[in-house]
Amino acid sequence: MFSARSIAWFNTFIPLLAVIGGYLIATHQQAAEACIPLWEGCTSISRGVRNGDALFWFRGFMMPLSALLVFYWVLQCRWLETFTGRRHRAILILGVISALSLVLYANFLGSQGDFYRFMRRFGVTFYFAFAALAQLLSLHALNRSQVQVSAGAQGWLRALWGLVIAQWCIGLASLAVTIMEPRNQFQLANIVEWNFALAMVCFYGVSGELWHRLPRRPEDCR
């Protein structure tokens, strides 16, 4: 059996492996432009993994990742319950919808037609937006509980807040790019997407370290 901490880190490593591995496969097969998309923005995540063998690689990770994300949010809400004394159904619902939306997005990725394009956008929008909101609400709930944080956990908690703040700042940057429509809008939008996704998936692993260092862990909750 994997520990709760391991499950949290799986939710960071699996999407990184899926996206980076898929993008490398696509560039090797000349199905995507080669660059460092985090700051060059030559392609979006979808364009980087939706052609050739990269698509099969990416899809192969999405179903288990979705299940792990659901499991993660169950653990996260139970862990929060030990500090707040109440259930966090809203956070759980947001997290589960986000995980299911990822499956929807992956299944329609690479399909042609307006309907399939709509379903992809629907899936990816709900995946990112609901996960970001659930992460923010999780930290807000923990902050309201006024739990005593040990010295060893303070750094990880600050890192979580940094990742969440980064996501919302990147989201505002995305809105600015959409409104202003600069000449390099395509590249800027891709840079925003890659960095937002990186901050979001890193949250899971870092939160696992916080679970490990604070007095009570999710497996202690009954």
Fold topology:
Blueprint: H1 4-28, H2 45-49, H3 53-84, H4 89-108, H5 114-144, H6 151-180, H7 185-213
List keywords for this structure.
single chain, 222 residues, mainly alpha, 7 helices, globular
Shape: globular
Uncertain regions spanning at least 5 consecutive residues: 217-222
Gap between N and C termini, in Å? 18 Å
Structural Rg:
18 Å
Residue share in helix: over 70%
Major sheet description: none
Oligomer: single chain
Structural class: mainly alpha
Mean pLDDT: 89
**Helical element count?**
7
What's the number of domains? 1
For the secondary structure, the number of strands is: 0
Order of helices and strands: HHHHHHH
- Strand proportion: under 5%
Structure description:
It is built from 7 helices and no strands. It is globular. By secondary structure, the chain is an all-alpha fold.
